[in-house]
Automatic annotation (TrEMBL):
<comment type="subunit">
    <text>Interacts with integrins ITGA3:ITGB1, ITGA5:ITGB1, ITGA3:ITGB1 and ITGA6:ITGB4 and with CD9 and CD181. Interacts (via the second extracellular domain) with integrin ITGAV:ITGB3. Interacts with ITGA3; this interaction modulates ITGA3 glycosylation pattern. Interacts with F11R. Interacts with RAC1 and CDC42; these interactions mediate physical association of RAC1 and CDC42 with integrin adhesion receptor complexes.</text>
</comment>
<keyword id="KW-0812">Transmembrane</keyword>
<dbReference type="InterPro" id="IPR000301">
    <property type="entry name" value="Tetraspanin_animals"/>
</dbReference>
<dbReference type="InterPro" id="IPR008952">
    <property type="entry name" value="Tetraspanin_EC2_sf"/>
</dbReference>
<dbReference type="Pfam" id="PF00335">
    <property type="entry name" value="Tetraspanin"/>
</dbReference>
<comment type="similarity">
    <text>Belongs to the tetraspanin (TM4SF) family.</text>
</comment>
<keyword id="KW-0832">Ubl conjugation</keyword>
<protein>
    <recommendedName>
        <fullName>Tetraspanin</fullName>
    </recommendedName>
</protein>
<feature type="transmembrane region" description="Helical">
    <location>
        <begin position="202"/>
        <end position="228"/>
    </location>
</feature>
<keyword id="KW-0325">Glycoprotein</keyword>
<keyword id="KW-1003">Cell membrane</keyword>
<keyword id="KW-0449">Lipoprotein</keyword>
<keyword id="KW-0564">Palmitate</keyword>
<feature type="transmembrane region" description="Helical">
    <location>
        <begin position="63"/>
        <end position="96"/>
    </location>
</feature>
<feature type="transmembrane region" description="Helical">
    <location>
        <begin position="20"/>
        <end position="43"/>
    </location>
</feature>
<dbReference type="GO" id="GO:0016477">
    <property type="term" value="P:cell migration"/>
</dbReference>
<keyword id="KW-0472">Membrane</keyword>
């Protein structure tokens, strides 16, 4: 019970932190918009009086407010992009760790239960493409197809494997499961796992790398905002 309470507390804390961050960013964004609006309003509505002043400080202050507002809003945009990239990188890393188990649990079942079934056209197309591109047959090997609902049905026309398992695809070539005809010993699970893992590495690396670069962008934006912020007189 203590563990459940702790986990629940951590979950609530995470949710609260997420919403607080969102609310803070939202109001910070509004503040940037308000600063820009005041500067624009000053230039648009009160510009007639600028010509009466010997100093350009008044107009300069208004221009600085406009630029500062843009910078603040740009900073928030950078921050949101930064957070999304960090999240993408973390999710890619987490899924990288879970991928092998997920494929072992689901790939064979997906192939045998959904291939050539009504409403599962996308799965059928993906399986055919997978087996042809990676030169493989079945999840672990060609024997997985013996459990296929479609292979067991009259619609298979005596095929032992789908035609996409064949080295050279012809109609009904899946009837013959000789090694010279199909990718008999090569399963798809390892090849698909390696393919996805490589892409997850790229996604994670790109997300984290660009996020790190954007840290400098946010620091630069903060420095720019600080330098543009008008000093009180």
């Amino acid at each position: 019970k203590m563990r459940e309470y702790t986990e629940k507390k951590e979950t609530c804390g995470t949710i609260c932190l997420k919403y607080l961050l969102f609310i803070f960013n939202f109001f910070f964004w509004l503040a940037g918009g308000a600063v820009m609006a005041v500067g624009t309003w000053t230039l648009a509505e009160k510009s007639d009086y600028i010509s009466l002043l010997s100093s350009s400080t008044y107009s300069a202050t208004a221009y600085i407010l406009v630029v500062a507002g843009v910078v603040v809003m740009y900073f928030i945009l950078l921050l949101c992009i930064f957070l999304l990239e960090i999240i993408a990188g973390i999710l890619a890393y987490i899924y990288y760790q879970q991928l092998s188990m997920e494929l072992k649990q689901n790939l064979k079942n997906t192939m045998t239960q959904k291939y050539r079934q009504e409403g599962e056209e996308s799965v059928t197309s993906a399986v055919d493409k997978l087996q042809q591109e990676f030169k493989c047959c079945g999840s672990n090997n060609y024997t997985d197809w013996a459990d296929s609902q479609w292979i067991k049905s009259p619609e298979a026309s005596g095929r032992k494997v789908p035609d996409s398992c064949c080295k050279t695809i012809t109609d009904l070539c899946g009837r013959r499961d000789h090694p010279s005809n199909i990718y008999k010993e090569s399963g798809c699970i390892t090849k698909l796992e390696n393919f996805i893992q490589e892409h997850l590495k790229i996604i994670g690396a790109v997300g984290i790398s660009i996020a790190c670069v954007q840290i400098f962008g946010m620091i630069f934006t903060c420095c720019l905002y600080k330098s543009l912020k008008p000093e009180p007189y």
